[in-house]
Amino acid sequence: MNRALQIALPFDAPAPASVPIAPATAALAPTSTTIAPLYFIRHRRARRYLLRVEPDGRLRVTIPRGGSKREAQAFAERQAAWIASQRDRLTAPAFSLEERRLLRARAEAELPGRIRDLAAEHQVSGLTQVSIRSQRTRWGSCGRNGHITLNWRLVLMPPDVRDYVLIHELMHLRRMDHSPAFWRHVASACPSFAASRAWLRAHGKTLR
Ligand SMILES: [Zn+2]
How many angstroms separate the alpha carbon of residue 161 from the centre of ligand 1? Predict the structure, then answer.
């Protein structure tokens, strides 16, 4: 298949290359107080210093009214172990090899039938082949030849979100782009698609 003709549904915008995710081993080094990469925001209504590890691994430090960057930094450094454990959860694989094998088998058993049902329900023609893959960066893709590939991780999603991804790929058989016309096809077949996209943005990266 000509990969240039593929249209993919990426997990999310990739993190900038200059923002490395802390290595998982950071949690094993109690003397390490490395808390970078981090950034500070000021929040007038915050009552205390707040920490949050973003999906891309950056630490967001919220400075309350009357607080200082220096105190915020010191507070964050005292929480280095917690920060490292949060980053560890981002980078560590959530499933063992055996679990992955079983989930993938479940995906092979469930997803091709489901997408064919949805194609029939929404009268989408042109689907020629469905393959299950273990893509690291996309939930699915659709080729001009009608070959749709799906990520096995779709079986981990709520059914509404999974169906949104399947419908998204099916609608590329009508429009091979992300134009307003494409999104109108998606919206008419999947009225709750915006909520599903929000779910993917919020939780997609946890499906590893
Ligand atoms: Zn797409």
Answer: 14
